[in-house]
Amino acid sequence: MPRSFKTALGFLTIFRVPLDPSPDMSDVGKSAWAFPLVGGIIGLILMVFGVVLSPNLPAPLAAMLIVAVWVVATGGLHLDGWADCCDALAASLPPERRREILKDSRLGTFGAAGLILLLGSKTAAIANETLPLTFLVLAPVWGRAMMVLVAHKSMQPDQGMAAGFNMGLDRRSVTWAAVIGIVSALIAGWQGILAAVAAYAIAMGFRRLALSRLQVVNGDVIGAVCELSETVVLVIGSLKW
């Protein structure tokens, strides 16, 4: 298993692979090409739980348990970024004050509401019987591909995790992350392509919003993009055509 893949797996999930020396955020940036592959591993775990739980439990309960597995497998890594962004972006304050809110570990009203809406939307989409099981794989794959695409050439803070990540991020990693994401969408069919296009458009819109209101794209914004993209993919997959 390549070191870069191990680095991505250890950073994005609770699965720890011993590495010597321990990777820093620059190493994580170099491993960004593997982000969608790690998303695929997460997705396969979710699909297995979907196959086992859906026939044996009421749809809402099965969906709730699948989302719980999703949170546990990722360590809730990006939920914190989503909540912080909801608190900061919704506040009617100057950019420097919004950036201070991002660093505040306390959960505000907008952050709590954002978490409820996000997790509720994921659960409701998964509970919908029209959602193809392949979308349980596509969502985490595309969410992590979008992390890389949004971080690339964005205005980063002078210090912090995002700055270190961007130092190691190169065009080759961005290209491979995009290719893997596109291939996964193609495998999911026309509905997968539509979901990927919608997720890309909304994620890029979110990046523009963050730049206009925060003047930076930091780790919280990148994590929030992952959660938002996953949710968009699930919602599009659950639409009744």
Tell me the layout of helices and strands.
Elements lengths: L2 H10 L12 H6 L4 H19 L5 H16 L4 H12 L4 H9 L5 H19 L7 H17 L9 H8 L2 H17 L2 H25 L4 H19 L4
Description:
With 241 residues, the protein is mainly alpha-helical. It has one domain (28-236). Helices cover 73% and strands 0% of the residues. It contains twelve helices and no strands. It has helices at 3-12, 25-30, 35-53, 59-74, 79-90, 95-103, 109-127, 135-151, 161-168, 171-187, 190-214, 219-237. Helix 5 crosses helix 12, helix 8 runs parallel beside helix 11 (190-214) and helix 10 crosses helix 11 (190-214). The longest helix has 25 residues, at 190-214. It is globular, with a radius of gyration of 17 Å. The mean pLDDT is 92.
Our count of helices gives: 12
- Residue stretches low in confidence (pLDDT < 50, at least 5 long) are none
What order do the SSEs take from the amino end to the carboxyl end, as H and E? HHHHHHHHHHHH
Distance between the first and last residues' Cα: 41 Å
Q: How many DSSP E strands? A: 0
The figure for the number of domains is 1
Structural class: mainly alpha
Give the rounded overall mean pLDDT: 92
User: What proportion strand?
Assistant: under 5%
Helix content: over 70%
Task: List key phrases describing it.
12 helices; mainly alpha; globular; 73% helix; 241 residues; single chain
Question: Nutshell version of this structure?
Answer:
The chain is mainly alpha-helical and 241 residues long. Helices cover 73% and strands 0% of the residues.
